[in-house]
Fold:
Amino acid sequence: MMTNDTRIPDGTLPSTVASSSETFTSRLSHFRRAAPAERRRLLALALGLGAGDLDGLADGALDCLNADKMIENAIGVLGVPLGVALNFVIDGTDVLVPMCIEEPSVIAAASHAAKLVRDGGGFQASSTLPIMISQVEVRGVADTAAAEAIIERHTTELCAAVDAALPNLAARGGGACGVRVRTLERAEAGDVVRGRIVVHLHLDCRDAMGANLCNTAAEAVAPRIAALVGGDVGLRILSNLNDQRMTTVRAVIPFASLERSDADGARQGADVAAGIAEASRFAELDPYRAATHNKGIFNGIDAVALATGQDWRAIEAGGHAFAALVRPDLRYAPLSRWWADSTRASLLGELTLPLAVGTVGGATRIHDGVRLALTIAGSPDARRLAAIAASAGLASNLAALRALATDGIQRGHMALHRRYREEG
Ligand code: MEV
Structure:
């Protein structure tokens, strides 16, 4: 049951646009032909920064002193290439997408796919409010049905207690916005569970990812919850299946943009679109394929997450758990879907997943490279950053399916990497 959830949206809201300028474009000519130092200069100019403002990125922008403040037993830093994907338009605004990844071809492929989506007007994103779930487990409850009713009656009190424990979040316009109770009972032979409930505290975390906020909230109210229902406090921790913090991105690609001619001859755009739709269908039919399909999506999402200092393990955990639950008829589903619409002469694509990202706190506080990557992305708020990461995910997915449905990955994807390097 969901109670006192008046601040949870009944639909989705457009993601906010953090920066917009009439002249700013993510189509940077000569960018890929330039050397890394020149690319930094071109980027800085495009972003209205000083010519050398991004130079700290040349060697990772994290020294050992700061690394030592971030983790324990630090002995150094390990470099991963940071690049920028071009051509992205999201919700009508151009954006340069910072991506940190060791795998060749991902950034070239995402940039190329973003150009195709640009032909159809760019990515359209929407998201829910940034609501995280914090779990309080209670064991040894005598009457779980009565416990559910008691928690429901005390929703206002519990939300107020959470807000009192997180005064800064409440001051920023976030805070507790609902409580849900679930009874965890099982009566299978050899595995009988009774008297166990879990209370979900719903927390609007604004621009924070929110893990620490959730854990603080759970620890603050757990004793009161246990006293109310007459049980023993179990675990108090956020859930990474954050299905209240969802992002959707959509793309429309005119068939004409998918047309291609190469050594094997010409391919009609409608045929390429049909091939991509069939590849998408394969992932719906087969969890073995769905896992690889989703890996291609996370190529884009994780790369943005790493560049911008996000907890990418949390993002992966949430995405895969959602993929396992989203379609009751499937064991594990693809997070995106592509289909051809012949009346619109277009290929359509959609990706929906939980995305807990933050633009305040965490690594943004200490890591200069993360701060610069966020600057490159247009200093987004958390919802815009989620839209950017999801768009990079859908672009990576499109690029992979297009290559798989046409030339095959080795020729299509890897040749793109070689062309990028050799021809510029
Ligand atoms: C490789 O990193 C990702 C792909 O395997 C994704 C896919 O098969 O869709 C190419």
